[in-house]
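User: Sequence in, structure out. Go.
Assistant: Echoing your sequence, followed by the structure tokens.
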Amino acid sequence: MTKIVNSWNEWDPLKRVILGRPEGTNVPAPEPAWAYDLPEGGYPIGTWGPFPQEMVAAANEQMEYFKKQLLKRGVMVERATIHAFMLNQPFSTPDWTQLNAYGANNMRDMVVCYGKYILEAPGCQRSRWYEYLNLRPLFEQYFKEDPEMVFISAPKPRLTNESFVKNYYYRHYRVTTERERYELASKQQYMLTEKEPLFDAADVGRFGKDLFIHHSSTTNRAGIDWLKRLFAEFGIRVHRATFESSDCSNPLGSHHPRHFDGDFVPLRPGLAMYIPSAGPNIPEMVDLFKKNDWELVPAAAPVEIHSDKVSISACPKQGPSWISINTLCIDPKTVCVQAGEKAYCEQLDKLGFEVIPIPYEKVNPFGGGLHCTTLDVYREGKLEDYFPKQIPGY
């Protein structure tokens, strides 16, 4: 019997992974869920289009190097398919028309691999509505070859204007102050309403029998509730997670947090790293980790300087970025880290890890880091309980 899909956590020995592609990535046309203002790169707010080809080539070179390092360590690497609609073309549903798609670089964002289950997330951005098609050929193959693989999808959202706070980005860029935006973020008040369940797959943190769901600008409470109801059928515990706002380039903090793996990274059973100024801020979450003897370690500050004129990731146009903690574990003793993050590499080395430095700063502008751009399909291991001592009501 062929076993293809099996991945319960972030650290078991990695044997199969899907790696994204930077080709076809676009600065998305404005929509209710996001808008970019990149005048220095030729895309002031209200404009959109493909990434410069020289950036695509540079990112591809680094991703190929990453692929080779994984192959050397016995990991099978598959690549996403670039669907034709990604090539800066408009598309529609009965409710709206979007003038272009985002891309196929971030495998983690729209799909959760959990045990034998492949779960397509609903997403909250119109420009990512059809992004799942880039992975469907592989999932169809898995379904045919792996008799245990289960392929499911969250309810496809309509993403009408009712799902978004009216004029959110107009106010964001032209009305509210930086402090007002930070205060809204501290209350988890972003552009999403609770009209329908919405979540990004990258807001899901996998810890065996426990899942932590980041309530962020890309995941609403209804989305967390849907996941709780789904996984309750399997005896899986789902916990809401939020973090203190943090942003290297902004002393007030981030007003647009997204994705669990941008704030909190488990590396092996009993150890997780977090951004020092963005630790968990739900007391029950902290208590759950402490009660089960997990060590939560503040990550070393990022040192790599980013200076990209076109970027749709968490990286600023100038300066360091906490994309540094976005790492990929090959096993509980081995971790891939961005080569330019020397301080973080040294910190992990002292914690007993074999650190594999991967140059990836040319990939970051396309939407993320080493963890963002990969989807671990098969890890050797089984479902384990890493939090046998639960917090009642959490």
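User: And one key feature?
Assistant: DSSP finds seven helices and 19 strands in the chain.
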